[in-house]
Amino acid sequence: MRKSRTNSRATLLAAIVVASLGFGALAYYVQNTPAAKRVPDDQRVNVVAPIRSENGDAPPRPSVTVRIAEVRNGVVRLGESVPVGDGEGPARVALSRTLDRLDLANASIVGLAIKDRHAVIEVNDGFTAGMGSTTESYVIEAFQLALGQFSTVDTFEIQLSGVRLDSLGHFELENPMRVKRPNAAP
Fold first, then answer.
1. Tell me, what DSSP letter sits at residue 167?
2. 3-class secondary-structure state, position 152
3. What would the pLDDT profile of 127-145 be if each residue is shown by its tens digit?
4. pLDDT tens-digit map of 4-37
5. What is the mean pLDDT of residues 168-173?
6. In this structure, what DSSP letter does residue 128 have?
7. Beta strand segments in 35-107, E
8. Going by DSSP bridges, is the β-strand pair 109-115/64-72 parallel, antiparallel, or unpaired?
9. Phi (first) and psi of residue 174, to 5 degrees
């Protein structure tokens, strides 16, 4: 009888030691694992939680918004958030609406491809027509900020009819151009 009681105590003690080691290892792992990086609010893509209708219909798809670049008092910055429609690409919406905000009459984005963190922006003929040097600098900086809100893009280039533009008329363009993250130091 004494032997079985000693065996059960030894087994219980061994189980407690093993459990303690397991919890210690877990605590060490949690303490030494780097914390997830916080995404700044103005770089975050806002997803609105779906709402169920009263009649039980399927919830609507979550809506996504992006911010568009604008010029205020000679300073280019990210401004208002705009919704992205179904089937639209957020980066293309950001660029197209930014271009609209810059009020370039005949300019438009006709295509956008992102591969390996590099965006290729395809523009129409109206994009290169009659921009002054100040407007050119606003357009480039606005594109840098508009694309900078997407962590999947680091660089970009502008093409017309599949040919990379080296200039918009006044300035030579760096190819590829780097995006500007909204909260990065200048």
1. B
2. coil
3. 877 788 888 889 999 999 9
4. 666 778 888 888 888 888 878 777 776 666 655 5
5. 81
6. G
7. 46-47, 64-72, 75-84
8. unpaired
9. -70, 135
